[in-house]
Amino acid sequence: MSTHKTLVFHASGGNLVISAMHNWHITVSDDATASERYAAEEFQKWFNQAARLTLPLDTMLNDGQIIIEASSTLGNEDVEITVDSRQIQISGGMARGILYAVYQFLEELVGIRFLTADHTYIPDASALQIPCGSYTYSPPFSFRWSYYRENSDAPEFAAKRKVNTVTDAENLGGKTQQQLINHSFHALVPYGTYGESHPEYYALVDGKRDTNTHGGGPQLCVTNPEVIEVAAESAIRQLSERPEATNISVSQADTAAYCQCETCETLNEAEESPMGSQLMFVNAVAERIEKAHSHVKVGTLAYWYTRKPPKTLKPRHNVQIQLCSIECCTLHAIDNPDCEQNQAFCQDTNEWGKICDDIWIWNYNTNFRAYDLPFPNLRSIAANVRYFLKNNAKGVFMQANGNGLTGEFSDLRNYLLSQLIWNPHLDADAHLNEFVNLHYGAAAPPILEYIAFLHNNVEARGLHPRCFPTPEDVGLDAESAQTIFDYFQQALILAEKPEIRARIEKASIPAYKAMIVAGGEMPSEKRQTLIDEYITLCQCYNMSHAAETQAAEAYFEELRSE
Ligand SMILES: [Zn+2]
Ligand SMILES: [Zn+2]
Q1: How far is the CA of 543 from the centre of ligand 1 (A)?
Q2: Domains of the chain (ranges plus CATH)?
Q3: Which ligand gives the minimal distance to the CA of 199?
Q4: What is the pLDDT of residues 79-88, one digit of tens each?
């Protein structure tokens, strides 16, 4: 069990005895909102199973009751619960807070665990006593995205994980109006619209105007005054169509081919960073946007060649800076002083923090080159999230297998990531252990040993894998791949029942992948068997992508045609 609690508790004395609640009702008002009603239904569904009770939903006040009601005086994701011997009041902000309050109550005070979309751990809580008093929580990040397709495909589950970025469904409280700060030049000054008539709007690269649309390119010539006006007009028009928006992205394309015209380069040289011309542009567009939409923030990426802040230029007050950690080592925490690879990122984060009070983070949590290869970052996630919080980040985009199902430990990772961005102070090891024990039962020990081996092996080899590592970068060779494979074979032997065996088979896909890509010389018959079993498992557990840009089926074809 976790050694840290999320809810802040103030005791009022005594305990509520669950077994004494058999004649209670769950009270939700007649004119409840969709999310209040859903929160009450969810409470009834899960609490009754754990408490072994059949409490009815009711609209009237009763003698013993659980009142489920959102509060307009709370922040929209705040949680406030009071427990006394005759009543539980579960309250939360509009519209997600009330649902989160119910889930937080069920998890922390009843012991339920929403592990995956189809695995909820429900303890026997019939003899439980809950200390009376008040329980409150206010999440520190207002934008939380554990970027797994497991969330977008199952928004009801994402709500249980308190991921607030995937659904508009009213009963689930909708999503934050804060949009992901993302590449947007192609949407603001579309190459298809202006490319032919105004090639000078686009980046001058090696003496020529760029025409390459890869990665949302070409980049813009950001010092061209007409480009500033076109981009601002586009942004203002987009915002008029989306009046609920609280921000808009004005940000570089995903390519390194930025403009090297004389005006852009002069500014970049003076500011000692290509962010010089970019930020001048973003500020100019943000100034125009503010006149039309004064409440809207303008987000831009500090990414790749723009991560280093300019020497003198500062972001306008309505500009958000989203730092991207793509160059960082994923084994070590970003602020681990022993990892040299991460020091430049820390330095830039520090500098941005001095000139901008609206910092956001884009962090990388998978191997984009091979979604299903063992990825040793489980020891750094919690420290990273705490580092982002310490540096006043307002939201975190934990990018992972967003377009792919059944990546390496995607269930465990999504659980941990979502848990930590809801509460960065949780004990990540305790939560990891708990997940593995609840999800894999008697087979948990070899799986925990595998996780320890994977990380120890990479640490011992002095490696610093990033988010596109090769098998060698994550310490895989014939020997380590075999060791990893054997852990999962042991786990399969220990599986107590078919559903646990299925979970282990799903988790074993990366062990097969390790053998296929790093298992070394082996008899061709053995290799063929590994490949056949790998493909069968991937298909059985709906693996959709082998990499960010490769569908699973295309990868299977590659393997079959070896
Ligand atoms: Zn230029
Ligand atoms: Zn490192």
Answers
A1: 43
A2: 8-138 (3.30.379.10), 177-296 (no CATH), 437-560 (no CATH)
A3: 1
A4: 999 999 999 9
